[in-house]
Design goal:
single chain, 113 residues, alpha+beta, Alpha-Beta Plaits, two-stranded antiparallel ribbon, 32% helix, Dimeric_a/b-barrel, Transcription initiation protein
Length: 113
């Protein structure tokens, strides 16, 4: 089985008011289904009120992320699934609940994990 990252950037979530509340309820229901199905690993969102820092090998801390890198924000779910088809199914459910497209990526297997 592989672990899949299902995510969306903050700007993709355009719902507001009652639609945003419904999206929250519905996306949490999908996550609860994933837990019941035994495929849930982790889910959450990046706290955009806390600025990122870069930490060097020697422990030096630099304010901000990589200067030329993408901004990382939005919501994320990691599910462990038997196939890409299953991953597409769960991503589609989250897209429907969140009212925005989801990116789907697979983690490379690390035998030490």
């Amino acid at each position: 089985m592989s672990k899949y990252l299902i995510s969306f950037p903050s700007w993709a979530m355009t719902a507001s008011g009652a639609a945003l509340e419904a999206a929250g309820r519905e996306s949490r229901a999908v996550i609860e289904d994933a837990k019941r199905a035994g495929v849930y690993v982790f889910a959450g969102g990046v706290d955009e009120a806390v600025a990122p820092v870069r930490v060097g090998a020697g422990g030096a801390v630099t304010e901000g992320g990589y200067p030329d890198g993408p901004v990382i924000n939005g919501g994320f779910a990691v599910l462990e699934l038997p196939s890409r088809e299953e991953a597409v199914h769960w991503a589609s459910r989250l897209a429907s609940a969140c009212r925005c497209d989801q990116e789907l990526r697979v983690f490379m297997f690390d035998p030490a994990s």
